[in-house]
Amino acid sequence: MCDVGILTFHCADNFGAMLQAYGLMTYLRVHGIRADIIPYEPPFMTGRHWWIPYVPQDSFVKTLCWGWNGWKRNLKLGKKFFVQRTNMKRFRKRYLTEDRKKIFFVWQLKQLSYQTYIVGSDQIWNPDITLGLRRAYFGAFENDNKKKVIAYAASIGNAFIAGEYSMEFSKLLKSLDYISVREKSAISYINQFYKEKICAVLDPVFLLKRNDWIKIEKLPNKMGYIFVYTTEKNDKLFDYAKELAKKKGLGIIKMKGDSEINGMNILTDYAAGPSEFLGYIHRAGYVITNSFHGVAFSIIFQRRFIVFEHSSAGVRISDILKLSGLEGRLYQEKNDFQMDSNIEWDIVERRIKEETGSAEKFLMMCLK
User: Fold this and answer.
1) What confidence score (pLDDT) does residue 259 get?
2) pTM above 0.85, yes or no
3) 272, 263 in Cβ contact below 8 A?
4) Which residues pair with residue 287 across a beta bridge?
5) What is the spatial distance between Cα 353 and Cα 244, in angstroms, rounded to a whole number?
6) What is the torsional sign of CA 353, 342, 231, 212?
7) Which of the listed residues 148, 171, 261, 267 has the most CB atoms within 10 Å of its CB?
8) Counting beta carbons within 10 angstroms of the beta carbon of residue 48, is it exposed (0 to 12), middle (13 to 18) or buried (19 or more)?
9) Rounded Cα gap, residues 10 and 277, in angstroms
10) How far apart are CA 309 and CA 97, in angstroms?
Protein backbone atom coordinates (compact mmCIF):
# COMPACT_ATOMS: atom_id res chain seq x y z
CA MET A 1 0.00 0.00 0.00
CA CYS A 2 1.47 3.35 -1.08
CA ASP A 3 1.98 6.29 1.24
CA VAL A 4 1.28 9.22 -1.09
CA GLY A 5 -1.36 9.73 -3.74
CA ILE A 6 -0.83 12.51 -6.31
CA LEU A 7 -3.77 14.31 -7.92
CA THR A 8 -2.76 16.29 -10.99
CA PHE A 9 -3.37 16.78 -14.74
CA HIS A 10 -1.60 13.60 -15.82
CA CYS A 11 -4.61 12.70 -17.99
CA ALA A 12 -4.21 15.72 -20.31
CA ASP A 13 -2.62 14.93 -23.67
CA ASN A 14 -0.06 17.64 -23.02
CA PHE A 15 3.70 17.17 -22.80
CA GLY A 16 4.20 19.49 -19.85
CA ALA A 17 1.28 18.08 -17.86
CA MET A 18 2.51 14.50 -18.13
CA LEU A 19 6.19 15.29 -17.62
CA GLN A 20 5.60 17.37 -14.49
CA ALA A 21 3.53 14.49 -13.08
CA TYR A 22 6.35 12.06 -13.85
CA GLY A 23 8.90 14.42 -12.31
CA LEU A 24 7.11 14.69 -8.96
CA MET A 25 6.25 11.00 -8.64
CA THR A 26 9.74 9.85 -9.64
CA TYR A 27 11.46 12.29 -7.30
CA LEU A 28 9.44 10.98 -4.35
CA ARG A 29 10.10 7.36 -5.24
CA VAL A 30 13.84 7.95 -5.65
CA HIS A 31 13.85 9.40 -2.14
CA GLY A 32 12.22 6.36 -0.62
CA ILE A 33 8.63 7.63 -0.52
CA ARG A 34 6.08 5.31 -2.00
CA ALA A 35 4.01 7.49 -4.30
CA ASP A 36 1.43 6.95 -7.04
CA ILE A 37 -0.29 9.12 -9.59
CA ILE A 38 -3.98 8.64 -8.79
CA PRO A 39 -5.67 7.70 -12.10
CA TYR A 40 -8.39 10.35 -11.66
CA GLU A 41 -9.45 11.06 -15.25
CA PRO A 42 -12.77 12.98 -15.22
CA PRO A 43 -14.51 13.58 -18.58
CA PHE A 44 -14.33 17.36 -18.14
CA MET A 45 -10.53 17.00 -18.43
CA THR A 46 -10.12 14.10 -20.85
CA GLY A 47 -13.03 14.95 -23.16
CA ARG A 48 -11.15 17.71 -24.97
CA HIS A 49 -8.77 15.06 -26.35
CA TRP A 50 -11.44 12.70 -27.73
CA TRP A 51 -12.01 12.04 -31.44
CA ILE A 52 -15.23 14.01 -31.06
CA PRO A 53 -14.13 16.42 -28.32
CA TYR A 54 -16.30 17.05 -25.29
CA VAL A 55 -15.97 20.13 -23.09
CA PRO A 56 -19.12 21.14 -21.17
CA GLN A 57 -20.22 24.69 -22.03
CA ASP A 58 -22.93 26.88 -20.50
CA SER A 59 -25.48 25.55 -23.01
CA PHE A 60 -26.10 22.30 -24.87
CA VAL A 61 -25.83 24.05 -28.24
CA LYS A 62 -22.43 25.55 -27.38
CA THR A 63 -21.21 22.14 -26.22
CA LEU A 64 -22.27 20.62 -29.55
CA CYS A 65 -20.59 23.43 -31.52
CA TRP A 66 -17.36 22.98 -29.57
CA GLY A 67 -17.38 19.26 -30.30
CA TRP A 68 -18.20 19.81 -33.98
CA ASN A 69 -15.34 22.26 -34.53
CA GLY A 70 -12.91 20.00 -32.68
CA TRP A 71 -14.00 16.99 -34.71
CA LYS A 72 -13.36 18.88 -37.97
CA ARG A 73 -9.81 19.64 -36.80
CA ASN A 74 -9.25 15.99 -35.92
CA LEU A 75 -10.60 14.85 -39.27
CA LYS A 76 -7.88 16.85 -41.02
CA LEU A 77 -5.26 14.99 -38.99
CA GLY A 78 -6.83 11.62 -39.77
CA LYS A 79 -4.56 8.71 -38.86
CA LYS A 80 -2.06 11.07 -37.24
CA PHE A 81 -4.61 11.90 -34.54
CA PHE A 82 -4.82 8.25 -33.46
CA VAL A 83 -1.04 7.75 -33.62
CA GLN A 84 -0.47 10.62 -31.20
CA ARG A 85 -3.28 9.45 -28.91
CA THR A 86 -1.59 6.03 -28.83
CA ASN A 87 1.78 7.59 -27.97
CA MET A 88 0.20 9.64 -25.18
CA LYS A 89 -1.66 6.66 -23.74
CA ARG A 90 1.44 4.45 -23.95
CA PHE A 91 3.53 6.96 -21.99
CA ARG A 92 0.77 7.46 -19.42
CA LYS A 93 0.34 3.73 -18.83
CA ARG A 94 4.04 2.91 -18.78
CA TYR A 95 5.33 5.76 -16.64
CA LEU A 96 2.39 7.24 -14.71
CA THR A 97 -0.66 5.15 -13.93
CA GLU A 98 0.60 1.67 -14.84
CA ASP A 99 -2.38 -0.73 -14.72
CA ARG A 100 -4.40 0.95 -11.99
CA LYS A 101 -8.12 1.22 -12.61
CA LYS A 102 -9.28 4.63 -13.80
CA ILE A 103 -11.35 6.90 -11.56
CA PHE A 104 -13.91 9.06 -13.36
CA PHE A 105 -15.86 10.69 -10.52
CA VAL A 106 -14.85 12.48 -7.34
CA TRP A 107 -17.00 10.19 -5.14
CA GLN A 108 -14.76 7.27 -6.14
CA LEU A 109 -11.84 8.93 -4.33
CA LYS A 110 -13.55 7.95 -1.08
CA GLN A 111 -12.39 4.36 -1.66
CA LEU A 112 -8.65 5.16 -1.76
CA SER A 113 -6.32 3.97 1.00
CA TYR A 114 -3.71 6.77 0.90
CA GLN A 115 -3.22 8.81 4.05
CA THR A 116 -1.28 11.64 2.40
CA TYR A 117 -2.27 13.43 -0.80
CA ILE A 118 -0.33 15.87 -2.95
CA VAL A 119 -2.34 18.08 -5.29
CA GLY A 120 -0.44 19.75 -8.13
CA SER A 121 1.53 20.95 -9.85
CA ASP A 122 -0.04 22.53 -12.94
CA GLN A 123 -3.00 24.90 -13.10
CA ILE A 124 -5.22 22.74 -10.91
CA TRP A 125 -6.89 25.84 -9.40
CA ASN A 126 -7.55 27.63 -12.68
CA PRO A 127 -11.35 27.58 -13.16
CA ASP A 128 -10.95 28.28 -16.88
CA ILE A 129 -9.19 24.94 -17.32
CA THR A 130 -11.15 22.84 -14.81
CA LEU A 131 -14.47 24.49 -15.77
CA GLY A 132 -15.02 25.83 -12.28
CA LEU A 133 -13.12 25.00 -9.10
CA ARG A 134 -12.95 21.24 -8.50
CA ARG A 135 -12.75 19.92 -4.95
CA ALA A 136 -10.66 16.90 -5.97
CA TYR A 137 -7.74 19.22 -6.74
CA PHE A 138 -7.96 20.74 -3.26
CA GLY A 139 -8.15 17.37 -1.51
CA ALA A 140 -11.66 18.41 -0.40
CA PHE A 141 -13.30 15.01 -0.75
CA GLU A 142 -14.57 12.48 1.77
CA ASN A 143 -12.12 9.76 2.67
CA ASP A 144 -11.74 8.08 6.07
CA ASN A 145 -8.05 7.32 5.50
CA LYS A 146 -7.02 10.84 4.50
CA LYS A 147 -4.78 12.53 7.09
CA LYS A 148 -2.85 15.21 5.20
CA VAL A 149 -3.19 17.24 1.97
CA ILE A 150 -0.24 19.12 0.46
CA ALA A 151 -0.35 21.51 -2.50
CA TYR A 152 2.90 21.37 -4.46
CA ALA A 153 3.50 24.04 -7.13
CA ALA A 154 -0.24 24.59 -7.53
CA SER A 155 -1.31 27.35 -9.89
CA ILE A 156 -4.37 29.54 -10.40
CA GLY A 157 -3.07 30.47 -13.84
CA ASN A 158 -2.57 34.13 -12.96
CA ALA A 159 -1.98 36.42 -9.99
CA PHE A 160 -5.65 36.05 -8.95
CA ILE A 161 -8.91 34.40 -10.01
CA ALA A 162 -12.24 35.97 -10.90
CA GLY A 163 -14.16 37.41 -7.94
CA GLU A 164 -17.12 35.11 -8.51
CA TYR A 165 -14.95 32.20 -7.29
CA SER A 166 -13.48 33.91 -4.20
CA MET A 167 -15.88 32.50 -1.61
CA GLU A 168 -15.67 28.96 -2.94
CA PHE A 169 -11.89 29.24 -3.24
CA SER A 170 -11.63 30.33 0.39
CA LYS A 171 -13.65 27.32 1.58
CA LEU A 172 -11.71 24.81 -0.50
CA LEU A 173 -8.35 26.06 0.76
CA LYS A 174 -9.34 24.96 4.27
CA SER A 175 -8.85 21.34 3.18
CA LEU A 176 -5.11 21.93 2.72
CA ASP A 177 -2.46 21.46 5.39
CA TYR A 178 0.43 22.96 3.40
CA ILE A 179 0.52 25.16 0.31
CA SER A 180 3.23 25.92 -2.20
CA VAL A 181 2.55 27.60 -5.54
CA ARG A 182 4.27 27.97 -8.90
CA GLU A 183 3.98 31.75 -9.26
CA LYS A 184 5.22 34.13 -6.57
CA SER A 185 2.76 36.73 -7.84
CA ALA A 186 -0.18 34.63 -6.60
CA ILE A 187 0.98 34.35 -2.97
CA SER A 188 -0.45 37.67 -1.75
CA TYR A 189 -3.81 36.86 -3.31
CA ILE A 190 -4.04 33.38 -1.76
CA ASN A 191 -2.93 34.75 1.61
CA GLN A 192 -6.19 36.69 1.75
CA PHE A 193 -7.90 33.34 2.37
CA TYR A 194 -5.11 31.17 3.79
CA LYS A 195 -3.10 32.71 6.63
CA GLU A 196 -0.38 30.07 6.94
CA LYS A 197 2.96 30.48 5.17
CA ILE A 198 2.90 29.92 1.41
CA CYS A 199 6.09 29.47 -0.59
CA ALA A 200 6.85 29.49 -4.30
CA VAL A 201 8.59 26.40 -5.68
CA LEU A 202 9.92 25.24 -9.01
CA ASP A 203 7.96 23.11 -11.43
CA PRO A 204 8.67 19.45 -10.56
CA VAL A 205 10.45 18.79 -13.88
CA PHE A 206 13.45 20.47 -12.19
CA LEU A 207 13.40 17.96 -9.33
CA LEU A 208 15.00 15.42 -11.66
CA LYS A 209 18.46 15.55 -13.21
CA ARG A 210 19.26 15.53 -16.92
CA ASN A 211 20.19 11.85 -16.81
CA ASP A 212 16.79 10.99 -15.30
CA TRP A 213 15.07 12.49 -18.35
CA ILE A 214 17.46 10.81 -20.76
CA LYS A 215 16.20 7.46 -19.45
CA ILE A 216 12.70 8.06 -20.83
CA GLU A 217 13.45 10.10 -23.97
CA LYS A 218 13.15 8.84 -27.53
CA LEU A 219 15.83 10.40 -29.72
CA PRO A 220 15.16 11.36 -33.35
CA ASN A 221 17.48 10.25 -36.13
CA LYS A 222 18.50 13.83 -36.90
CA MET A 223 20.70 16.24 -34.96
CA GLY A 224 21.39 19.97 -34.98
CA TYR A 225 18.03 21.15 -36.35
CA ILE A 226 15.90 24.07 -35.17
CA PHE A 227 13.11 22.79 -32.93
CA VAL A 228 9.92 24.86 -32.84
CA TYR A 229 7.32 24.23 -30.15
CA THR A 230 4.36 26.54 -29.63
CA THR A 231 1.34 26.33 -27.37
CA GLU A 232 -0.40 29.24 -29.08
CA LYS A 233 -0.08 30.85 -32.50
CA ASN A 234 2.64 33.48 -32.84
CA ASP A 235 3.47 34.87 -36.28
CA LYS A 236 6.62 36.65 -35.08
CA LEU A 237 7.92 33.38 -33.67
CA PHE A 238 7.36 31.60 -37.01
CA ASP A 239 9.03 34.43 -38.93
CA TYR A 240 12.03 34.29 -36.62
CA ALA A 241 12.32 30.52 -37.04
CA LYS A 242 12.30 30.75 -40.83
CA GLU A 243 14.87 33.56 -40.82
CA LEU A 244 17.17 31.61 -38.45
CA ALA A 245 16.83 28.46 -40.57
CA LYS A 246 17.80 30.42 -43.68
CA LYS A 247 20.74 32.08 -41.94
CA LYS A 248 22.10 28.85 -40.43
CA GLY A 249 21.22 26.54 -43.31
CA LEU A 250 19.33 24.23 -40.93
CA GLY A 251 16.08 22.33 -41.17
CA ILE A 252 13.14 22.91 -38.85
CA ILE A 253 11.31 20.29 -36.83
CA LYS A 254 8.08 21.46 -35.27
CA MET A 255 5.25 19.97 -33.26
CA LYS A 256 1.75 19.83 -34.72
CA GLY A 257 0.70 21.59 -37.90
CA ASP A 258 0.83 25.37 -38.19
CA SER A 259 0.29 26.37 -41.81
CA GLU A 260 2.24 29.60 -41.28
CA ILE A 261 5.51 27.70 -41.16
CA ASN A 262 5.01 24.91 -43.68
CA GLY A 263 7.49 24.63 -46.55
CA MET A 264 10.68 23.05 -47.77
CA ASN A 265 13.04 21.52 -45.21
CA ILE A 266 10.38 21.73 -42.49
CA LEU A 267 9.28 18.53 -40.78
CA THR A 268 6.08 18.52 -38.77
CA ASP A 269 5.59 15.74 -36.21
CA TYR A 270 1.86 15.52 -35.57
CA ALA A 271 2.10 12.35 -33.52
CA ALA A 272 4.90 12.79 -30.96
CA GLY A 273 4.40 11.81 -27.34
CA PRO A 274 6.32 13.07 -24.27
CA SER A 275 9.32 10.80 -24.92
CA GLU A 276 9.69 12.14 -28.46
CA PHE A 277 9.29 15.70 -27.18
CA LEU A 278 12.24 15.22 -24.82
CA GLY A 279 14.34 13.71 -27.60
CA TYR A 280 13.64 16.57 -29.98
CA ILE A 281 14.84 19.16 -27.47
CA HIS A 282 17.88 17.10 -26.48
CA ARG A 283 19.23 16.84 -30.03
CA ALA A 284 18.20 20.31 -31.23
CA GLY A 285 20.77 22.88 -32.25
CA TYR A 286 18.34 25.64 -31.34
CA VAL A 287 14.94 25.78 -29.65
CA ILE A 288 12.31 28.42 -30.43
CA THR A 289 9.23 28.32 -28.22
CA ASN A 290 6.55 30.19 -26.28
CA SER A 291 6.01 27.30 -23.87
CA PHE A 292 7.16 27.17 -20.25
CA HIS A 293 8.15 23.52 -20.56
CA GLY A 294 9.89 24.29 -23.84
CA VAL A 295 12.05 26.70 -21.83
CA ALA A 296 12.39 24.32 -18.86
CA PHE A 297 13.75 21.42 -20.90
CA SER A 298 15.96 23.74 -22.97
CA ILE A 299 17.57 24.67 -19.65
CA ILE A 300 17.75 21.06 -18.46
CA PHE A 301 19.36 19.89 -21.73
CA GLN A 302 21.39 23.10 -22.07
CA ARG A 303 20.15 24.06 -25.52
CA ARG A 304 20.43 27.52 -27.04
CA PHE A 305 16.91 28.90 -27.11
CA ILE A 306 14.75 31.95 -27.52
CA VAL A 307 11.32 32.30 -25.96
CA PHE A 308 8.46 34.47 -27.15
CA GLU A 309 5.84 35.87 -24.81
CA HIS A 310 2.72 33.77 -24.15
CA SER A 311 -0.64 35.35 -23.38
CA SER A 312 -1.34 33.15 -20.34
CA ALA A 313 2.06 31.71 -19.32
CA GLY A 314 4.01 34.96 -19.29
CA VAL A 315 4.51 35.08 -15.51
CA ARG A 316 5.80 31.52 -15.33
CA ILE A 317 8.22 32.07 -18.17
CA SER A 318 9.56 35.39 -16.88
CA ASP A 319 9.96 33.87 -13.39
CA ILE A 320 12.11 30.96 -14.57
CA LEU A 321 14.19 33.22 -16.84
CA LYS A 322 14.84 35.66 -14.01
CA LEU A 323 15.64 32.89 -11.53
CA SER A 324 18.16 31.29 -13.89
CA GLY A 325 19.67 34.60 -15.05
CA LEU A 326 18.48 34.07 -18.63
CA GLU A 327 16.24 37.13 -19.01
CA GLY A 328 18.11 37.91 -22.23
CA ARG A 329 16.64 34.83 -23.93
CA LEU A 330 13.20 36.50 -24.01
CA TYR A 331 12.50 37.92 -27.45
CA GLN A 332 12.27 41.70 -27.54
CA GLU A 333 11.49 43.23 -30.91
CA LYS A 334 13.72 46.29 -30.37
CA ASN A 335 16.71 44.32 -29.09
CA ASP A 336 19.48 42.92 -31.25
CA PHE A 337 19.22 39.38 -29.89
CA GLN A 338 22.03 36.98 -30.74
CA MET A 339 20.96 33.33 -30.59
CA ASP A 340 24.59 32.21 -30.37
CA SER A 341 25.44 34.48 -27.45
CA ASN A 342 27.24 32.63 -24.68
CA ILE A 343 25.23 31.00 -21.86
CA GLU A 344 27.14 30.34 -18.65
CA TRP A 345 25.50 27.03 -17.89
CA ASP A 346 27.47 26.50 -14.66
CA ILE A 347 25.85 29.61 -13.19
CA VAL A 348 22.41 28.59 -14.47
CA GLU A 349 22.77 25.13 -12.92
CA ARG A 350 23.85 26.59 -9.59
CA ARG A 351 20.85 28.91 -9.47
CA ILE A 352 18.43 26.12 -10.36
CA LYS A 353 20.02 23.83 -7.78
CA GLU A 354 19.56 26.44 -5.04
CA GLU A 355 15.89 26.88 -5.88
CA THR A 356 15.38 23.13 -6.18
CA GLY A 357 16.86 22.74 -2.71
CA SER A 358 14.13 24.97 -1.29
CA ALA A 359 11.47 22.89 -3.03
CA GLU A 360 12.96 19.67 -1.68
CA LYS A 361 13.01 21.06 1.86
CA PHE A 362 9.35 22.03 1.55
CA LEU A 363 8.35 18.56 0.36
CA MET A 364 10.36 16.71 3.01
CA MET A 365 9.05 18.99 5.78
CA CYS A 366 5.46 18.32 4.72
CA LEU A 367 5.96 14.59 4.39
CA LYS A 368 7.93 13.88 7.56
Assistant:
1) 47
2) yes
3) no
4) 227, 305
5) 32
6) negative
7) 261
8) middle
9) 16
10) 33
For residue 2, the model assigns a pLDDT of 59
Coil/strand/helix, residue 147: coil
Q: What is the pLDDT of residues 72-108, one digit of tens each?
A: 988 888 888 899 899 999 999 999 998 889 999 999 9
Which helix (H) or strand (E) segment holds residue 252: the answer is strand 252-255
Q: Would you say the C-alpha torsion 284, 288, 291, 296 has a positive or negative sign?
A: positive
* Alpha helices, DSSP H, located in 258-313: 274-283, 292-300
Q: Each residue of 349-368: pLDDT tens digit?
A: 999 999 999 999 999 999 98
Quick one: which H or E segment has residue 181? strand 178-181
What angle is formed at CA 327 by the lines to CA 323 and CA 331, rounded to 5 degrees? Answer: 145
266, 268, 285, 294, 332 from 262: Cα distances, Å: 6, 8, 20, 20, 24
CA 328 to each of CA 162, 249, 265: distance values in angstroms, whole numbers, following the listed order: 32, 24, 29
Phi and psi, residue 359, nearest 5°? -65, -40
CA count, 13 A, side-chain hemisphere, 217: 18
